[in-house]
Amino acid sequence: MNMTVLKDELLNDPLGRGYSSMSDLEVIQSLLEVNRSVLTSILSDDLLAWAGMNGRFVKITRIAEDETKSDELRSVAWAARTMVERDGTDLDLNLHDREAMLDLLVSEGVIDSSDKDDLVSLASKQASRAEELGLGFRFQQDEIQKARP
Length: 149
Fold this sequence. Notes:
The chain is mostly helical.
């Protein structure tokens, strides 16, 4: 249990859950309720399946090899192609540079926004606030008491 993260959550209440007026048990229930949409890493087999649909892989490859395109766009397309081809890799859309690469591919018309939406949907899952914060799935009342401001 990361007490620093838990203390910060209870003190600052960034989502406005009202922890200060909750009992310890209510805090635990609030933290464990599955009601948050989070992005998880997309594993290589799922990434390959996504790229294989709607001609995405071919579109990305075509741009990576097109010498009339900017070096930036070609580099991003090359990196995307490599990521799709490489076994054992994953794509974490929580990382700003990965999101920026995807946005560039969309803005330059390599893939369209529905392709991006499909990828984001593939990475999305429902989780608890505790899971989102990396706090685990079990709490004791005394941990909440110790973490309270």
